[in-house]
Amino acid sequence: MGVKALVLLAAILLVAAPPVIAQRRFRGEAAVTPNNTRYDGRFTFLRLRYAPLERGWGRFGGGQEGWAHDYPRAERNLMRLVSELTMIRPYMDGGNIFPMDDKEIFKYPIAYLSEPGFWSLSEAEAAGLRTYLEKGGFLIVDDFDGYDWVNFEEKMHAVLPDGVLMPLDVSHPVFHSFFEIESLETLAFGNYRSVSQGAEYHGIFENNDPRSRLMVVVNYNNDIGDYWEWSDQGFFPIELSNEAYKLGINYIVYAMTH
Amino acid sequence: MLETIFTLLFKQRPIVFQRGDVVFEASWTVLVLLALVGAAVVWIAHRRVSAVSARGRAVLIGVRLAVLALLLFALARPTLVVPTVVPQQNAVGVLVDDSRSMRVADVADGSRGAWVLDALSPEGANLLGRLSREFKVRPYRFANGVERLDPGATLTFDGSATALGGALDRVRRDLSTGPLAGIVVLSDGADNGEGGLDDPVLQLSAAGVPVYAVGVGRDRFTRDIEVARVELPRAALRGATVVADVLLSQRGHGGRSVRLTVEDGGRLLASDIVRLSGDGEATVARIAVPLSESGPRSLRFYVPPDPGEEILENNARTVMIEVRDDRAKILYFEGEPRFEVKFLRRAVAEDPNLQVVVLLRTADGKFLRLDVDDAEELAAGFPRTREELFAYRGVILGSVEASFFTHDQLRMLAEFVRQRGGGLLLLGGRRAMAEGGYTGTPLADALPVELEMAEDAEYFHELRVQPTPAGRTHPALQLSGTLDQNAARWDELPVLSTVNRLGRVKPGASTLLRGSGEGGDEAPVLVQQRYGAGRAAVFSVQDTWVWQMHADMAVDDLTHETLWRQLLRWLVSDVPDRVAVAVEGDAGDVGSRVRLAATVYDSAYLGLNDATVTARVLTPGGGEREVALEWDVSRDGEYRAGLAVEEAGPHEVRVEARAGERLLGSVVTHFVAGDGTAEFFGAEMRRAALERLAQETGGRFYTTETVGSLPEDIRYTERGNTVLERHELWDMPIVLLLLLGLLGTEWSLRRARGLA
């Protein structure tokens, strides 16, 4: 198992997916209607929903809100890889979407938060996510760069007032829970390495102790969801998509064991 | 009362009739002639009586014949011939109980001991005085041991145990050389010595020595509560909650509620209200005792005395438990990444007494090892040798299919339980149990349930999990405080889910948790059984982590942690080390004996029979004794020795096993001897035991009220030097009474019919 198989699978996805999907990225997408599934014990990808934050120039993405970016193809593709490469038996058809103050989130201990640059947060949502993390939930924050950090940091502080965002290096177990990730230098936001800083990885630890459980992993200057979504369309080099999948799968295996 | 009436009517006491034979001393020829003549006269006299019916005539003839028979009986000179002792030629052994229980004040206005002292005082009218007229009395006192009671010696009633069987044996042997009329026992009947009464009674019976047992004391107290017995594991892991079964016996407190408390050196560990059963009935109270301090702990189980209780010393009982502070190593093998791994690890992460080593199959042929001791541990995946697997005390199998293992590995897992005595726990999952193909494998034999495949491949069922009656008091399932609080806590827990349908629970297994679905259907959830030397359990749910994450569970709720910590402690609680030792039986007071039993295994947990096993016993006074344990030839790897308790207080027993010079292992255990109260437990006079003793040896049982006839009764014995004593019976008042009765009846019948 390993990179070879991953490359092969990604290649299959590339060939098999209908070309029409590619066009949607540029046309803009309709507002997302959650198609949630009932809890049945299987691992189900959870995407957190929040009200859009108006930031001068309106919604990003021409119709799709930031929290929904890459839905549902990102999770579908990721789950397909998870199912093929690991022993995990996930729910395959996308995932579930709930706001942070919904009690349902507690049935899915791994959550994905997209575009925190546009993240708005009510007190109830902050409390919900705080409880989720304190009980043992794991949060993947993705798809943001540049000044988005300011909004993210502010909201994260509201969720975990005592939580300290600490940079992660490649030695952390999260990068070795399934794939042996040797470098964190490969990815950047939307692969626009020429205009964007390289990806950075941050985390919040339980009790701010780096030896303790990683509760939140932050992909800053990065958008691994985008790689997952378009891995079958040839927009990005397969090697980069592979790196994004490796991160996603490692996050999941780590969160299921730590 | 009955005996008095009998004696009035028959001139002699029943025992004289029992011991003697009735003979007729008149000539049989004369008697037969008289009978014939009498019968003829009756016949002729009544033949012509025509004023009455045939039936009336028959009655009259019958009555007259009965009168005739009675006269003939008297004329036949009936005589009771009974052997009696020749005065001062026979010995009588008198065994006097000198134990502490004789201090109980329940005889007339004084204590049992005071009554005995009075009976033994040399004045003429008491028991000893009256016995001395006919017998050579040989008094002994007995408690832990037995010794002659020399003239002038006093009884102290300070013996800390009562070995009645041994005392009877000694007296029988001592006095067997001369004529012995019997043995008189003055005791409350308690026998807490080694060996019991069976053998001594058999010996006495064979030798024909009757025992005259005098039960001193009441055989039923009016008001008393006694902590009669405490059942507790001998050892537990620190942080475990153990459940003690406490047997409370009582008199005069039926239906009342009392408080049972458990203390450790004055520190309160647990307390609960116990409702007692009906008057005189024993109650088994179960109480959960959390053990947070390590080392040998003396737990005192205590019910506060009630005003008016007759014995206060039996309201508390102290029991030792070894609280280990070592780390039990458990292997959790999980076949797929899932949240159970994370949350189980979190539950025990801070636990200093549990080490859960995780081997997680993340992909086909790819494993993640967590919390291993070194780079070598589990490097080749799941253990392939007994030595490697048996190094763990417990194994948890997650969602992993049977076909992952070789046949040998499955058999080894079953042996891990049966032979090594390990704890095995199977969790629910898509690849577990019947769904994982375990049916018909060597491991299926070890499991407490029959494996039954769900018909629906995607079977998924949500269950509200509740403890069964057995589970409610089970040590692994105590989530909070008292048993009542615990039951309430279980009611509040969110539903879990299962993808496995458990089949029939095997005979001998016990269901601790049951689940009920929305449709009211029920299924076992946690089932366990002993399998060989170990324990196997299945826990059919797949997501206990919900009890940590669920929206209804508070962030600081410890249900999930508590459950897993206790479940795993329980799973490995009785798992033996390669060298283990137990102190068998209750350590009594000074003078009693305890038995040490050690087991010695090799690394594959096969019993070793050629080891040198020694116990070094550190006594409370600082003394040290060495005792060699001998191999018990009937069981591989088991070694035994007896140990006489010579001092009161805590004893440390350090057992070492060696093969030649090589140390196989050492282990330490403790026991506490004698707080001096053993005699006050079960202190009611044991009437049944004493009656049996008397009956089976041909003697008699007496109470302090009826003991007056003993000196007379003991004369009628066939033992020793005897003569035959003759008692004429023709003048028994019963004969005269019957005669008058019959004649009166006849007269009345004749009057009624107008006859002369």
Summarize the structure.
Chain A is an alpha/beta fold and 258 residues long. Chain A has helices at 3-16, 20-27, 73-85, 123-135, 148-159, 224-230, 238-257, and strands at residues 43-49, 90-99, 110-114, 138-142, 166-167, 200-205, 214-220.
Task: Write out the CATH superfamily name of chain A.
Answer: Domain of unknown function DUF4159
- What CATH architecture of the largest domain in chain B would you give? 3-Layer(aba) Sandwich
Which structural class is indicated by helix and strand composition of chain A? alpha/beta
CA radius of gyration of chain A is 17 Å
Largest interface between protein chains, with number of residues from each side = A-B, 30 and 34 residues
CATH class of the largest domain in chain B: Alpha Beta
Description:
The complex is a heterodimer of chains A (258) and B (756). Chain A is α/β, with parallel strands linked by helices. Chain A has one domain (3-257): Rossmann fold. Chain A is built from 7 helices and 7 strands. A 7-stranded mixed β-sheet of chain A has the order 2-1-3-4-7-6-5, sandwiched between helices. Mean pLDDT of chain A is 86; it is low at 15-29 and 56-61. Helix content of chain B is 25%, strand content 33%. Chain B contains 18 helices and 36 strands. Chain B has a 10-stranded mixed β-sheet with strand order 18-17-16-19-20-27-26-25-22-23, with helices on both faces. Chain B starts with a helix and ends with a helix. Chain B has 5 domains: 2-82 and 727-752, no CATH class; 87-218 and 685-720, Rossmann fold (3-Layer(aba) Sandwich), CATH 3.40.50; 224-323, Immunoglobulins (Immunoglobulin-like), CATH 2.60.40.10; 328-572, Rossmann fold; 579-673, Immunoglobulin-like (Sandwich), CATH 2.60.40.1930. With 756 residues, chain B is an alpha+beta fold. The longest helix of chain B is centred in the N-terminal third of the chain and has 22 residues, at 54-75. At the A-B interface, helix 4 and helix 7 of A face helix 9, strand 17, strand 18 and helix 14 of B.
